[in-house]
Amino acid sequence: MAKFDKIAVFQKIAATGMVPVYYHANLETAKQVVKACYEGGVRVFEFTNRGDFAHEVFGELVKWADKECPELALGAGTVVDPATAALYIQLGACFIVGPLFNPDVAPVCNRRLVPYCPGCGTASEIGKAQELGADLTKVFPGDVYGPAFVKNVMAPMPWAKVMVTGGVAPTQQSLEAWFAAGAYCVGMGSQLFPKQVVAAGQWQDITNKCRECLDIIAQIKGR
Length: 223
What we know:
Layout: H1 6-16, E1 18-22, H2 27-39, E2 44-48, H3 54-68, E3 73-77, H4 82-90, E4 96-97, H5 105-111, E5 116-117, E6 119-120, H6 123-131, E7 137-139, H7 142-154, E8 162-165, H8 172-181, E9 185-188, H9 195-199, H10 203-222
């Protein structure tokens, strides 16, 4: 069962504006990355379903985070079908994210009041996802669509809440461009966790980078 309900998850996303996106097959490494992000102010974290037995790592991560990162809403990403969504929800996922929009995933999430954030690439896809209960939709890959896409979608659909993932850099320039376009939040992966930083166990670097990004986002939203 999800530790945080849909309202609580959205409150956390709204408060921070950033969702780290990460996968690692090694549980201990995943714990270190999650803890580093948490100490940097992150309160919503997406663990992606991108490797063999990823769900087993996720299940252990959820139980660990319940004690070590008590305010963290941990969700599952790269979910493309209802069976996988159900599996991760049973393991405690607080939200489900997909690179694509699968209408059959929505009822599974809605039944348990778990947010479903599908990847959408057109205004029609975003609209259909909203009809099926997706309060937050994902623009992916962001670097292909660009801030102009978000801006032009928001013009006729100002109620839309969009998370941009892919192509978001942890820099003032990149974050300003996306939030100015109307992004509700951003998802960031490899640029928050460079392979060499993880390999060297430089967890404080990750903490510092997360804190820096959250400070930039707070400044942008505060204007």
